Amino acid sequence: MKLSSDGTILAWFGPWPINATLAYTWLVMAVLVLTSFLVTRRLQDEPNMSRWQNLLEILVDGLREQIRQTSCQDPGPYLPFVGTLFLFIAVSNLLAIVPGYAPPTASLSTTVALALAVFAAVPIYGIAQRGVRSYLADYLKPSFFLLPLNILSEVSRTLALAVRLYGNMMSGTIIGGILLGIVPLFFPVVLQFLGLITGLVQAYIFAVLAMVFIASAQAARDERKPTQTFGD
Amino acid sequence: MRIDWLTVGAQWINFLLLMWLLRRYLYQPILRAMDKRQQTIAARSAAAAEKSARAEQLARDYLDKLAELDARRAELLLAARAAADAERTKLMEQARADAKAESDQWRRDLAREKTDFQRQINRQLGGLITATARKAVQELCSKPLEQALCDRFLERLQQLPAEEKRLFTEPHPGELLLASSFELDAAQRNRFESALRDILANDVSLRFETLRNSSFGVVLSSADHTLEWQLERYFAELQAELDATLTQTERKPPADAEPGLNLEFPQALPE
Question: Which PANTHER family match (chain A) (predicted)?
């Protein structure tokens, strides 16, 4: 049993191999983009909208509300990043119900890439809002000697973010495969449904943690700013 | 658990690409549509609020006008009622006056007709009674009625007390007037002159006249006293008795008659 789909090479693009992880990632991207394109090309400004438009509006509005509650800030700048994280991970995990499909999030390469994206987004958003000097000065607080610990903290939480998602998704796939060998009827199906819920929860956790990290880099370290309570 | 850094790089790029694509085809269009719908709803809500305010203002205006019209109608109704009452009172008074005038006129006409009728009856009855009496007296006494009247008149004059006889000559002695409903012949005049001289005084002078308004009678009068016999006196008594009988009959309506509506005349006079 393969633990990752990275090793499954489907084709070669020059010197670069096209593995199953990339192929399924593109599949998820195609599903997301095509669905969005087909629905949003005929948007209605009136209340009598289509069901798909209604679904997407609920989704986007829910994401904005979640970001607002988590960060206590305007969700506008964070929606593309955090929303894409949630949608990509959620759709990747939900498609695991399709036979023969291997979720890209079960690949450590994918989760590391997503964690690195969060790792990069935190200073980008922080610097964009507070400036380079103010942002970097936080690493020297409360003392210069804590600089290594602060950097280690950033790296470790990024690693934890990647491994958490990878472990959950990979374990679900592996447990499903093992149970399929032991109890081939009924029980794997139940476990697959449970895996769907786990997938959605993991997508939610990943997106919320990313938002918390970004927000903490902007507000939590700035003691001059009053910290709003969750749910305001 | 192995990390393929080439795949990591590719996934990184894929994620950035996906983020851009979703921003272009999902977030921005959806947010634009939501904002536009919110603006539309806000505009409609504002327009609805404006219309509602205008409608409320209109309703208030209409209510004010309605109240004004009600007040005006009440005033007009009051004035019309007062005018109608005044007109009704005026008409009623006029109707009463007209009815009273007609009633008075009717009563006057009735009284005049009654008087005329009585006169006519008296005249006819007098003529009839006189003719009958003349005939009866002629057959019983073998003398004319006028002669009988003269005899009875002189007999009555003869039987007067002395003090009453003196009333013809005292305290103003003078000419006496003897009026009769019929023409006295010379013998009758001489008889009256000689009889009066015997009964009253020797120096009495007598003047004769004819009564115009009497059907049958003789009147002897001086300046202070009068002695007469006229058939009209019986007619007056008869009329008085007739009136008394009619009045008594009118006051006793029949038992089965409707109160206030008695148009029947008595069939026969009580004896």
Answer: ATP SYNTHASE SUBUNIT A, CHLOROPLASTIC
